[in-house]
Fold Alpha-1,4 glucan phosphorylase.
Amino acid sequence: MTREEFIEDLRNRVRESFAMELETATPNELFVAIGQIVRACYAKSWHNTRQRYLVNKQRQSYYFSIEFLPGRMLKSNLMSLGLLDMVRSTVEELGFEFEEVLNVENDMALGNGGLGRLASCFLDCLASRELPGNGNGIRYDYGLFKQQFVDGYQVELPDAWLKSGNVWEVRRESEAVEVRFGGNVYMQPTKDGKLKPVAENERILRAIPYDTGVVGYHNDTVNTLRLWSVEVPESEEGKYRSIEERRMVEDLTAVLYPDDSNEQGRLTRLSQEYFFVSAGIQSIVRYYKKLKMPISRINEYVAIHINDTHPALCIPEMMRILLDEFDLSWEKSWGLTVSMMSYTNHTIMQEALEKWPLQMVKYHLPRMFQIIEEIDRRFVTNLTGLYPDDLIQRTRIIQGDQIHMANLCIIGSHSTNGVAKLHSDLLKSVVLHDFYVLYPERFNNKTNGITQRRWLQQANEPLANLIDKTIGTSWRKEPTDMERLMNYCEDNEVLVAFEQAKQQNKLALAKYIEKTTNIKVQPNAIFDVQIKRLHAYKRQLLNLMHILKCYFDLKDNPEMDFVPRVWIFGAKAAPSYTYAKAIIKAINEVANLINHDPIINDRMKVVFLENYNVSLAERIIPAADVSEQISLATKEASGTSNMKLMSNGAITVATMDGANVEIRAAVGDENIYTFGLTEEEVYRYYEQGNYSAQAIYDQDPVIQRVLNAFVDGTIPNIQREGQEIFDSLLRYNDEFFLLKDFVPYCQVQAKLSQDYLNREKWQKMSLINTAKSGIFSADYTVQRYADDIWQIAPVDLHKEKRN
Ligand code: GPW
């Protein structure tokens, strides 16, 4: 597309869609028109990709996830299509601010945090590697709530992201399917003496797919993210007479559950899970029928991935279709199902492990329940005599009145993986050890990754351009090529240029901070960033305690040498998570206190940015000097913001948790600040039960002063919240060992501040972090999933063998 063609197209679309002339258009119209042009640009490739897969009967993977978090798509699609520079300069020549046009787009925020973002990074990488992999999920009418601070408290507002339309999606009426809930199922004998399930009084809902193209980077692959929305089928219209009854149905895909790593166990959530799973599996089977292959070979063409346990019903739903619709035997159906399914575990935190009340499943999903019962019965029967009874009881699916979804996933799939080495090892040795005894060959690790296309190329153009200038552009396709930057560790000119790029990004963020919060920050201060969901285990409170310590040090000794620092937070708390909300309030009040204290004289600033989401992350990450990754060891399965920040040259302050361990191995001890309890030490405390927060408090006057600040009025306006925080640390004995890690944390922070003054040393560390970040590209992660778990390939290597 030439720029003349682009302008012509733009002019026509603005005219046709808005009855306006280009000259009078605002960024809103421009965004829609450019979106339409971009979609038209990849429409052909999208169709061709689907045709190619169909004609080649290509084996494909389907990533089932209850969350996807792509963020904005205009810039990333332009970049993938190689149109970014042309479109940007043309738009600017036409007299518009390109940034303003980009800012029109609502984030697609159909996810909470790491888990949903990982799913979106994976889709980007699959397409960019020309791998045949698709997404399957829910098209929520409302994404994750918008966060506002009112008087320092989090307030949640609805995210009506579809209000102004969605240029990227395509509604596919002809591919709708029916999903059935409730009713009774009984077994009826057929003529040939078999028993077949017959259902009556089911509620039938219509699932309508909306497809979004996932555009590969500089290739012609466009894969599909298919999201399902609920509707009342015409045949059922009569049954839902009142508006309330219709609302009940439409509620199903109305809102994303805003709980991160916390199981709510509500009926609507269970219905959401079955809804997108059943629709997705039916749509896969319908597609497979087009290949005209026997059902007994479906496992050669289909790989289904279960992203955490939320889509666990994939297993009984696939069984249902093979048994009830294709009349396959149980054994044959089970063999096919297990060989198609694979599962990723994302946490070892007990409160996140899904369990559903047996009665709820039995009543609302009766056929699922029957099949799960039978899977459980056969599991127990087959293992009895071969393994100790207590092991069988601990690993079976149905225990008491609950259905254990992780157990179902492991038993019903051929692969279970964790998301970082440490996490996968803990699964084998502790959390899922019983299963590891049963199925050692099923366990494997796939360390998470990120897409540098979004998180570096797109979000940080100053750095990306500098990398190009220094080592060429190959890293954009082969991220490990960034390692070549190691040759410039001692090159002063290069180091200075990198420092300038960082400075430019810090300036841009400082502007944004001032515009949105009225706080002025100095771009030469350390930008210290902690961005992630608010959770006790992630220990934002530990960060806050260190801030308070710095504050008291300065108050006591205003003349002391102090390296100026800006602490930047971004975090949403689940609306029902009162403790997390108390921490938000406390951070905001501490910010207020410090930012306005004349004695501090701008040497410390605390900034809590509202509504942390993907597009805000894209602003913050390029400007970070320091990356806070301070979860208690064993609690963060992997983390992915650690990788994004590292890639952008931030230095990590890290506990030995999740993927931090692998980051340290990559950059070397001297290029990361590690501290805190190790995995072994944490487990030792658990075994010996001898942790005493009170004892630590009693012996350390600094800790006393910091903790007392929460209850003695030092931090204003947090009577209730301060008390709750204080009690969590002392009365309830500090579940995440903050007091134990506090002193070493302060020590590495002091060291860091000193090192920051040595600009050359710091800049070298920063460069090394970027240079070594290539291995955390999700391009490689996805390739390992493709090779080890899904057996998918760009050119179908398995085809010869089959035909
Ligand atoms: F609890 N993660 C998340 F395991 O973002 F399901 N939401 C969740 O509900 C869960 C996990 C769940 C995160 C992990 O906390 C993080 O460590 C990991 O990097 C990320 O998933 C992607 O694997």
Notes: The chain is about 50% helix and 15% strand. Residues 27-55 form the longest helix (29 residues).
